[in-house]
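ok posting inputs for the zinc ion job
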Amino acid sequence: MRVGFGYDSHVFDEGRPLHLGGVLIPGAPGLRGHSDADVLIHAIVDALYGAAALGDIGSHFPDTDPRWANADSMQFLRAAVAEVRAAGYSVGNMDATVICERPKLRPHVDAIRARLAEVLGVDVSAVSVKAKTNEGMDAVGEGKGIAVHCVVLLLP
Ligand SMILES: [Zn+2]
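and the output
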């Protein structure tokens, strides 16, 4: 078994839509980034690559590459899942904590879990997405963006 840890953060960009875990969150400010800036998917991709010691999202999908401008981050996740499978692993479970003062994410959590489970190739019971605020502390607490921490377990 292998465990991987992922972290990502992006600042809000009011002019973009918010994609979180492959789900469009209506009425919420989006995030600044080269791709669609799906901060949750980026953290999961880093956890997958980390678990298999296959580098990180930046080494596979550099943000200087015009191919990834406004890219759907789901394609990064599909590629990472395929690479860890090629390395001989399958996903056991994933657990993520999404930290932001806004928007309220709890109403969207089950849709996000279902979407991620489909791409990770696991039952939805193996996918956890927890939402919390930073209690007003630091830049995330001041509402400047969203941060995500996540762990992934890979099985042989
Ligand atoms: Zn990112």
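notes: The first strand starts at residue 2 and ends at 13. The longest helix spans residues 39-51.
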